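It is worth pausing here to work through a concrete case rather than discussing structure prediction in the abstract. The textbook approach is simple: state the sequence, then state the predicted structure, then interpret. We follow exactly that order.
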Amino acid sequence: MTSRYISHLRNWALSSPPAEWIINQIRELLIGSLRRGPVPQHIAFVMDGNRRYARKHRIETVEGHNLGFEALARILEVCYKSGVRVVTIYAFSTENFKRSKYEVDHLMEMAKVKLIQFAQHGDLLDRYGACIRILGQRELVKPDVLEAIDKAVDMTKNNGQAVLNICFPYASRDEITTAIRNTVIEFSTPLEKPSTLAKSPFSESRIAYNIRTQNSPRKGGDQDRGSLPNTSYLEPPAQHTHGSEPLSLSRTSSATSISTLSTSTNENEKPLSPAGSSSTTLSPTPNVDDFDPPSVYRTQYPSPDSITPDTLTSHTYTATCPPLDLLIRTSGVSRLSDFMLWQCHQETEIVFLPCLWPEMDLWGFLPVIWGWQRRQVKREKEGHRFSLQPSRMDRHDKQVMG
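Step two, the predicted structure:
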């Protein structure tokens, strides 16, 4: 008996009602077992290999994409049933526009049709309370496709238990650039309610006061210790003419200004002072708090020192999603292809599978989740053991006390 007949016999046996019932029961038991351990809250998929699958099985490329969509439906059901809250898929990259016009047009048409089917006729999203979110550059999408996208998003907006992020069309570098641009705009906008915090030690007025204080003569010199020097480091050096005396610096009645500098024009003329004396007169030591910047500088902006990685994360497409726990790419290619570069943090696990995306099913997905759960449990045990282990200093103190 040839392998062809064996294959047909196996398919017939598996498609019989008793065999289907047994397989479904085993399937439900395996998915239920996933919920007993830690479950990743955010999984991302790079659905790669549709075209290679079509070439391998000698079918049209568009048919390979259709089979890839069916694989997506299978994986989504497993994810949501096992407790995954957010699934992000790489549906269309901005680099895909470089493909043939025929393939690009088909992908756009398939996205329009499948999204509407998902939202209207498919019970998968409603059953698990999943809403659709489109991440990417909307300006690159055709108007008719954009209309279908908005319709699908609107029809599932009331579902709040799970999320399906569809990156279409998407590029991670563009997302990061947009996040940085929006952060700059946010921190360049004046605060509506300025804070009443203490003045910064790095303000211009305090820097000027510290410079004058540090460079003034010490006690016992020609000037008192608290007096200001005759020149300011914030102004250009005075131009002395022949026979002229040093510039006279005085404070006016305003606590925030410095009086104009006057120079003598001949040998007999002395610099003027507010008291009318012939010598340079300086006001008492000013209070640091009196050196307020002009009113034009009093507008407060968010401090750039407060920018953290979380600040940029709040401006990304996935700002409201939990951190990325697991990223899976099929087809055996070991690269990220400009996908979720910012979201991949130190705890994210990246898995590259050899199977093509249309071949992805429960039996290929379960080992990945089991491996992730095993490593999470091991990591938690190690962290707990490390927290219970006394430090070297504690052990040393106990030895000394003993």
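Step three, interpretation. The longest strand covers residues 130-135. Strands lie at 42-46, 86-90, 130-135, 162-167, 326-329, 349-352.
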